[in-house]
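Example record

One chain of 291 residues, shown exactly as stored in the release files.
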Amino acid sequence: MSVSAFLDTDISALLCECQQKDAASRGIQTRSMPYLHEPSATEGDKGEEPVASETCPPAGGTGSPKSPPSKTRDAKKKANDGNEGLLMNRGEFRKGAATGVKEVLFSGVKKDCLADAIAKVIGDDNKAVRDFLGEDRSFNRAIEYVATNHPDCVLDDISKSMLEAPNGVAVALLNSDSGKFILQQMYKSDGEKRYHCAALDMGAVWGPVESVDMKTKAIVVKSGRGILYDNQADVKVHLAELSDREKGAARKFFSDPYPNILDMRITRVYKIVANKTETREGLRKTKRQRF
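Predicted structure tokens for this chain:
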């Protein structure tokens, strides 16, 4: 994996700066571009409805530009440098830069985020899931899809236990030993609540991957466990490190892929688990076959 894959260049900001300088030289008054800093995700609202909305954040998140960060916010960010996960370019990830094997990533329009997240964690073709969900695109329909096509599995709503975890939902998720999760995230745009779904696989092992230490500028090799997937084409794949399991870093891990959203909250959590009823029935059949 080349180091350059992790060095982000804000082309739009550079273009904007060039345009402003050009305009200034010609005596034209322009509007300065707001500085975009890292958002700080907060824990989910316990009373949110399990809705998969059509209004999901594209291009790393929509919403209003953020105001310049305060000195306190800057100090916290500086203290946390090096403690965040690795954001990897989608093309590099597909080629196997993180896991050593070619990977499948689903990209789609906003309304397909739930279907694509289900397809990723369950290992199905995303078109089949999209077709099954149709215009419904609710978690009830997603649960029905898993029950119909994977009777040995259940899409279990574990929102209550995760959202009420002592150190917050972000810490609880990243400290899971394994598990495949669907996350419903809520944010606001123009004062309206909007929802987006992403997939988290805490059993996925990645590395070794080359990265750059932001303090020393030295090349370091990292490995870890846990990968966050999003179906928006320019939202990078996020690789979780051991240091992300700490409280402050955990919240940052889930907000970093969406730099243009001020407050992205995890509001519901679903997990793929074994269907105990099917397992017991399978064991009974096996025992009967032995006689």
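Notes: The CA atoms of residues 202 and 226 lie 4 Å apart.
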